[in-house]
Amino acid sequence: MTLANAAASASVISKFRREVWAYWKKHGRHDLPWRKTKDPYKIIVSEVMLQQTQVHRVIGKYGEFLERFPNVRALARAELSDVLKMWSGLGYNRRAKYLKDAARHIVDENGGRVPKAVILLQKLPGVGPYTASAVRVFAFNLPDILIETNVRAVFIHEFFNDKKKVSDAQITPLAHEAAEGQDPRLWHAALMDYGVHIKKFHQNPTRKSAHHGMQTPFDGSLRQVRGAVLKLLHMGSHGDLALAKKLSFEQSYIHKALEGLKKDGLVTNDRGVWQIS
């Protein structure tokens, strides 16, 4: 299916839906742990974890995290150092702080209940437009649309296969048409799984997205240094010299990582000694 514009006939949309649902029926990842719950807290944990992290890396951590922090109040009252320890291995550690801060906000401002309204969800630290919509869809089964890498792959492959630099603005009308009348939770799970399939067998159509960007390599990156610094500080506080001796990175790079971690509120410095916040 290829369209010259961002509109589709009812028959085209109907055929598209049948393809998506057929794939879901045979190959859908029904066993993903966050698809077995409608608990808004557990959904928001999964959505923050899945930001910039592959599914297979999240699965194990998701269960461990929820075992340690089973509800929003448990996370809200936890020490940041404990949250960061449980987060270790997922990367982008500022997300752990955002999640803890979001839990605190939910307890303080919403009586411990995850809100449904977009405007309230987007007030939570670390929750942007996509995550807010994902919580509405997967926790509350409310009608909305989700556009992320796998969903982009589906729409670009099916409707814009001969185009380049396809924007989300072009995809959005089609996403609304296709989602109309469908169960929001199941439809978007099916779309995402179909997108995973398409990316494997059709040279990843998201490369044609106007929003596509290649992730920089982890080895030698500032992300790697930040992770190594946090791992060491989990074992106890360290001064600059001790960190430089124990870490095999240039001192200037370690300093840059420390300053970034401090800015993100993950570490503090007390008279030359670094520790987890």
The count of strands amounts to 3
CATH hierarchy: architecture of the largest domain: Orthogonal Bundle
Low-confidence stretches: 2-6
* CATH class descriptor of the largest domain: Mainly Alpha
Order of helices and strands: HHHHHHHHHHHHEHHEE
SSE class? mainly alpha
CATH topology of the largest domain: Endonuclease III, domain 1
| CATH H level, superfamily name of the largest domain | Hypothetical protein, domain 2
Q: Any overview of this molecule?
A:
Keywords: DNA damage, DNA repair, Glycosidase, Hydrolase, Iron, Iron-sulfur, Metal-binding. It comes from Candidatus Kaiserbacteria bacterium GW2011_GWA2_52_12. Its cofactor is [4Fe-4S] cluster. By secondary structure, this protein is mainly α. It has three domains: 10-30 and 144-208; 39-140, Endonuclease III, domain 1 (Orthogonal Bundle), CATH 1.10.340; 222-276, Winged helix-like DNA-binding domain superfamily/Winged helix DNA-binding domain (Arc Repressor Mutant, subunit A, Orthogonal Bundle). The protein contains 14 helices and three strands. Strands 1-3-2 form a three-stranded antiparallel beta sheet. A hairpin with a 2-residue loop joins strand 2 (267-270) and strand 3 (273-276). Helix 12 packs across helix 14. 33% of the residues are buried.
What attributes does this structure have?
three-stranded antiparallel beta sheet; mainly alpha; Endonuclease III, domain 1; 59% helix; 14 helices; Arc Repressor Mutant, subunit A; 277 residues; single chain
